[in-house]
Amino acid sequence: MKRKSRLAAWLLAAGLGTLAVSNSARAEDGAAALAGKTCGTLESRVAEIPGSGPVFLRSYDSSFGVGQTSELPLREAAFTYDNALAVIALVACGKTEPALRIGESLLSAATLDRARRQGRLRNTYRAGAQTQKPIPPNGWWDVTANRWFEDAYQVGSATGNVAWAGLALMTLGEATGEERFRNGAAELARWVVANTADPRGPGGFNGGVQGFDDKPQALTWKATEHNTDLVALFGWLERSGTPREGGGDWAGPEKAARGFLDRMWADGGGHFPTGTAPDGMTVNRATSGLDAQLWPLLLRGAPEAWRAALDYAEKAHGVDGGFDFNDDRDGMWVEGTAQAALVYRLLGRSDEAQRLLAEVGKEVSRGGHVWATREDSITTGLAIGPDSTTDDFRYYRRPHLAVTAWTVLAAVGWNPFTGERVK
Predict the structure, then answer these.
(1) What are the entry keywords (predicted)?
(2) What global pTM score does this model have?
(3) C-alpha span between 360 and 347 (Å, rounded)
(4) What angle do CA 400, 402, 407 make, to 5 degrees?
C-alpha cells in the first residue's frame, strides 16, 4: 500500500477522513453560496436600471445606505475596468443577458469616442442607462462653482482599462458567437498599439493617456499589470483569427507585451517588479504590487518558474486572512485576496483557495457588493496621477463593483484571461 493510501486508511479508521471530507464539502458549499450571492447582486444591479438597453453600473454601491461616498467625482462613476469585469463575471455566472447590456455600452464607446476616435475608451463613464452616442465620460455639476466638471483621470485612457474592456468583449464574442464583439475588441487593441507602443528599454506598452482633450498627457511609465492584460488580449485575438486592420496579425504585439514581462521577471529575480519609471526604461523598485505577481500566472502558457511570484507574494504581501496590495502589509485588499484565491485554484491548491474565499465571504456588504478593504483604508505605494507629489492612491472600505466581480470569478473558478473555467 502506498504511503498516501495508508494515511487515508488511518484517517478513515480514526474517523478523521470523514471529517476531512466533510470540511472540504462545507468549503465547496461555501464557495457555491458566495458565487450565488455575488452573481445575484450583479444581475440585480443591471435589472434595477429600467429598460433593456445599454447600461453602465455604478462602481461604488450605496444600497441600504452603506458605502455612500460624498466625493462628487465618484457618486455616479462607472469605471471601465469595473464594468468590464462585471461583464466577464456575469458570463461566468451564466447570466449572458445582463452581461450584454453592459457589453453593448462598452462596444458603443469603443466604436466612437466624442473626440471622433475609434477604439479609445475613457477610464470612467456615468452610471445608468446609456442613451447618448457617443457616450460621454463621467462628469458632475458643482452647485458651488455653478458649472460642469470632469476629472483628468476619468476622461483619460489607461492602457490596462482598454485591455480589460477588450477582454470583456472577447468574452461576449465567445458566449454569443457574434463577431461584432470580437471586432470591437480588435478596435480597442488597435488603439493600444497605435498610441501606447514603446520600444525603449524593455519594450512593451506604456500607461496610456491622461488629461483633457485639449491637453492630453502621455503616461510614459510602463506597468507589468497592463502588459499582462495585453498579452491576454492580443493572444486571444490571434487564436480567434480576428483580423487586424491594415493587415498582419496579433502575434507581434503579443510578443512585445510578453517580452516586457520576461524582462521584468529577469530583473525581479523571483518576482515581478511593478514596471518602469516614467522614462520607460528604469525598473521601478520603489514598491511592490500584488496584481503584478498574480495576473501573469493566469496567462495561457505561463512558465512554471513564474509560480515563484506567488511564493514572493505570500511573504511580501501576506496579511492575516489574505493579502495586501503592496508590501507594507497595512491591511487586507479584498480584491487581491479574491484574485489570489483564483490563482490558487488554477494551480490546484484548493485548500488555500477555499480558505481565502471564506475570508472574502466575510466582507460582503448588506447591499450584496463586497467591501474593497477590511480596514478603513490601505496604502498602495502608487500615485493617483502624474501631477501627484506623494503616493496618494489608496483603497477605502467601500462596497465595490470590481471586488464583487473578482469574488465571482474566484468562487466559480473562471479565468478572465482565457474565458475558461479552471478546475
Answers:
(1) Signal
(2) 0.93
(3) 19
(4) 95
